[in-house]
Amino acid sequence: MKNLLLCCDWGTTSFRLRLVNIPDQEIIGEILSADGVALVYDAWKAVEEGEEDKQRFFLNHLNRQIALLASQLNIHLDIVPIVISGMASSSIGIYEVPYAVLPFNSDGGQVNVRRIDSNENFLHEILLISGIRSDDDVMRGEETQWIGLTGLLKLPVQDTIFIFPGTHSKHLYVKKQQLVDFQTFMTGEIFRIVSSHSILKESIEISVLPDFTDEELKGFCSGVRDSLEMSVLKALFRVRTNQLFEKLDKKENALYLSGLLIGSEIKHLLDEIDAQLVLCSGNNLYELYKLALEQLHLADRTTIVSPEIADKASVAGQIKIFQNQNLLLNNINL
Hints:
The chain has helices spanning about 35-45, 50-75, 140-150, 185-195, 215-230, 230-235, 235-245, 250-265, 285-295, 305-334, and strands at about 5-10, 15-20, 25-35, 80-85, 100, 105, 115, 125-130, 130-135, 140, 160-165, 170-175, 180-185, 275-280, 300-305. The protein is α/β, with parallel strands linked by helices.
């Protein structure tokens, strides 16, 4: 059991728990759900008050997920430690851990953590990982992915911008193996809001990712190109007129909207002429971001991280931080 680690990536809108063998970083099993931190926090607010109650509420939810994973694998997981990154360390999570600050080294040694001891109700020691802040931005989770990537891949040594697509996409600026700045783009959240709660919802039909036809992808490319020629606020109404004038069908139009927003996110990279780019995306957005980079003629200086490697990056980063923190703790106790 000493070689096993529970790795939890708990984001705003998603939850992922994996049992990992530390020496070879093999993922033995996993649980995926839409029970993100925001959803669990809202559920707690509906029934409880008080910071101690909040921590207990989150740990009870985590206990149920661990029990589900144990049942799925037919394995006993009591006392296996758990390391958690993402929004679980925020003010709406288990316990708020102060942000680390820039510049931030790729070995993860500057990360802030909170240790939570096991007890009779929760039989796992927890290492809760903080995020990073700049003067005007914050992130929790992507820094752990970045730390993991530096160990998994031989990455460019020159100035590099890492692109992490998502609900809140992050662009990480790295110089000499140090994270020196980052930017957040609300690309995924704006797509969800516009496609579900605006007048444009009647003009689109969302396909199952990433199963797109060639015609739908032409709509996406058209959106990327239009993002270069006009402001996003003006271009958004094209989604309505595309459907009204029967220029695109509803599925093609949904891809047009996606291209418009992704293009608006990444077009500033055209000005970063001296930087290498690294795209790190899971399967759900990989093809779209790759295609958008091609449309903007940025592919020649972009390293494309496969979805399989991107999928392992968080685990690799969590293991590195867990081992570094244990080594630090052992040295303190000598």
